Amino acid sequence: MPLVNQEQTVLVVQEGLGKVVLFAASDPFRRSEIKVGEKPHEIELTADGRTAYVSNFGLLEGNYRVGTPGTTISVLDVEGGVERGRFELPPGATAPHGLKLRPPRRSELYTNAEEGSGAMVVFAADSGAVLRTFPLPPGVHNFVFGADGASLFAFTMQGEVYRIGADSGEVMARAVTGSPRGLAWTADSRHLMVSGRNEILFLDPARLEVERRMSGLGAGQIFYPAATPDGRWILAPAVLDGVVLVVDAATGAVAHRIETGSPLLLAFSPDGKQAWVSNVTIPAGIFAPPVKPAAGGVVRLDLETFGTTAIPAVPDANGLAIAISIGPRQLGSGTFA
Questions:
Q1: Domains of the chain, each with CATH number or no CATH
Q2: 0.85 cut: is pTM over it?
Q3: Which of 91, 152, 185, 279 has its CA 20 to 30 A from that of 192?
Q4: What is the pLDDT of residues 258-293, one digit of tens each?
């Protein structure tokens, strides 16, 4: 059954299963699967939604080096529902994690290799040719671009945030922020949001100086924050607390604590009325009580009522993206217990 024009397709990276699930936002039972590499993490879409890139990280998580560091980026034909091919990292660079198309042209694909040389690898997005590499500060785990693409902003597992020249790799500014595990822009793009333990920092992007701090949020480590498109709320996923905090962007007050399982990150629907939440697997034995093991999954969050809907049979979610079709797209159909 084909999807009509402007249909939204949700793409979910399933880390432990090594695949990407695609389903219709209007009917999650219409779905298909694409096999990718081992322990994939991030997903990035082209502007037209036809192509997706997936980082085959190969390791369980930034703090738990379980597995074998990966060496490839999967390139997916979204409409065809197949893996078109793979980009190969250059020798010595392994464990690709963060994955972003550089604005505004989006013709270059960047990924930070966490193992081996620890370099940023820049691919031609159309061909997969390696255009250049440059060294990164130790421990870089993920990054975002500024709107003009001149700089990228990366956080490390050692508690630092960097502004780095996207062409040269030159470090332009550095800040120590405590426990960064996610970066995002405010709705007006004026400040860089940095997640931390029980807090979110707002940095001036030029100097990386803290201009505002939301603290005392009633959670432990916050991961990838997100500002709603209307700028009213900051959504703060706290994996080990099992909640998404809905924080008033003006006052810093927590308006809602929404239980979703083990939330890592969010993606918004184009109309800004819904957020899709990926919940990661928490294996047994990694954390002491009260943290409980979790199978992970996907939850749809209504941003008007703050009600949730769990999507069945999509466990172990990590990266997540929303594609808008520009023509018919064929997905499978089926029922799930």
A1: 51-311 (2.130.10.10)
A2: yes
A3: 279
A4: 999 999 999 999 999 999 999 999 887 777 778 888
